Amino acid sequence: MRLSADEANAWIDAGTWHDALRDAPISELRDITGDRKSPDGLLHGPAVAIRLEAEGERRKNLLAAIRYHTVGSAKWDQTGRALYMADYLEPGRKFLAEDRGFLASQVPHNFEGVFRQVVRFRLEWSVREGNHIFPETVELWNSLR
Ligand SMILES: [Fe+2]
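^ inputs. structure came back:
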């Protein structure tokens, strides 16, 4: 994709760190974030971003990518979008393997087009499962039209 070294490094770091606290105790995640209300599954992204920033991380796009990776963000640049796609398209997951493999192969050719499809698939799945749709996800979807 001929990314700059800075951009490539931000994608790699986002992929490496975004789930670093996924298995941390919920009480720890609530202490780090100060968030007493959000569902448990939404805490690990913000917690990692807060920890990284406290440890000196200054790349705002990387922090935003990690902070919002579970719900999405309309304000993301390519790093946030790349992480969101990678999280869904990674080959290790078993569902829709063929379709996701095809989408992954198209990322270098049509980054924004694949991103839109990934947002759509994740949103459709959430609706089908009867899950709560978070405002950030709605804002992201509406920003793509
Ligand atoms: Fe995650």
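Residues 64 and 80 are 7 Å apart (CA to CA). The radius of gyration is 15 Å.
thumbs up if we can close this ticket
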